[in-house]
Amino acid sequence: MKEKGKWIYKLYEIASLACFFTMVVIVFLQVIFRYVLKISVPWTEEVARLLYMGVIFLGLVLVERDNINIRTTYFIDKLPLKLCRGILIVSNILAVILFIMLFAGGIILIRKMSLYTMASLPFMSSATFYVPVVLAAPMVIYILMKQLKGFMKYRPLKGGDD
User: DSSP for 53-73?
Assistant: First the structure.
């Protein structure tokens, strides 16, 4: 992989890990404040939800890059190789379309929700919830497009005669 590509992926890794670590700390503090100190801290739930979305969508880039998403290929591997490759290509194209729609929807929602503030954090816009979607979708589309080339070399684990 090119050095530029490694740097971008490293940035996604760091951002995803930072979101996860911060989320764990905030949730832990919420438990301590609520059950030990008997103090309600309302902003922690919204921030934890935002960070959770960051972990999901930024981590999705890493999952797609390494092609480690969970999938069941038992039945696909039993199909003839050409049909198997065709199904994988069609499913990848559908995934690209899904992420294009997700990206466009995220931009639309950012525009609409920018007028509203969060209930417990009045200085933050509700549009903040859609930022991870907009940040992750283009990268996932790029990775899925790269994977389309790799499907021509796909070999099933078992079965699948030509």
Answer: HHHHHHHHHHHHHHT------
- Can you give the residue ranges of every domain in the chain? 3-153
Neighbours of 142 (CB within 10 A): 17
Taking the C-alpha atoms of residue 16 and residue 25, their distance in angstroms, rounded to an integer, is 14
Res 69: pLDDT: 72
Distances (CA, A) of 3 to 6, 8, 9, 18, 76: 5, 9, 10, 22, 35
Q: Residue 161's pLDDT band (boundaries 50, 70, 90)? A: very low
Stronger pLDDT, 28 or 102, i.e. the higher one: 28
- The whole model's pTM is what? 0.68
3-state DSSP assignment of residue 155: coil
Q: Are 59 and 133 in contact (CB under 8 A)?
A: no
Q: What pLDDT does residue 100 have?
A: 83
